[in-house]
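Students often ask what a 'structure token' actually looks like in practice. Rather than answer in the abstract, let us consider IspD/TarI family cytidylyltransferase, a protein of 239 residues. Its sequence is given first.
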Amino acid sequence: MNIALLIAGGSGNRMGQDIPKQFMHVDGAPIIIRTMQCFQQHPDISAIAVVCLKGWETVLQSYANQFMIDKLKWIFPGGDSGMESIHNGIYGLKEKGCDDEDLVLIHDGVRPLLSQEIISSNIAICKAYGYAITGIQCREAILESGDGFTSTTSIPRDTLIRTQTPQTFRLKNIINAHESACRKGIVNSVASCTLLAELNENIEMHIVPGSEKNIKITTVEDLEILKALMHTSKDEWLK
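Now compare that with the structural description of the same chain:
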């Protein structure tokens, strides 16, 4: 199976709103539902699982029923960090009887403009090489700063990749990575790709081209950009 594992266990404190950002409505639907629809519509996705903020599981299932997300099979409890939420999700899939060879597309629950092409590429690259990390070549000039206010050092951008999600693994491989992290005392890596890098096991991660439209909603400004992207289309004269 190809399983979408959506991480929606955060409270969204940086958004500063009264409800978690994944449940905020944009044009009549919650952000988490719009994200789920990306996978619901893809013919090669067999099932959807969501790691959900504790206390919001019933709300999530009700929205899924309302918007006919029938690929939603499992809801797992969120953790105190992104890494812990992913841990809960992958072990939850194992406990539900998913196969070691199943592909798991780990995706932020607040990236609702994921394209069908990126999903397809993740599946194809993971099948071919074992790992697939969505990313974009860095275009900005990069400075290094210890305090966030001053800098004396630049970092060459030519070798830098800005990662996004999905990040795709065979279930056995991502579980093995978390078990190795536990043995090495790695407890709060910011993403699955950084976890693999921190393990220092020379795991070659293959890059899937991402998109600037595959935005992660973290701030009110991101929400404004999302709304703008949803209401625009490519001009006919553009190649």
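One point worth highlighting: The chain has a mean pLDDT of 94. Ask yourself how you might have guessed this from the sequence alone, and why that guess would often be unreliable.
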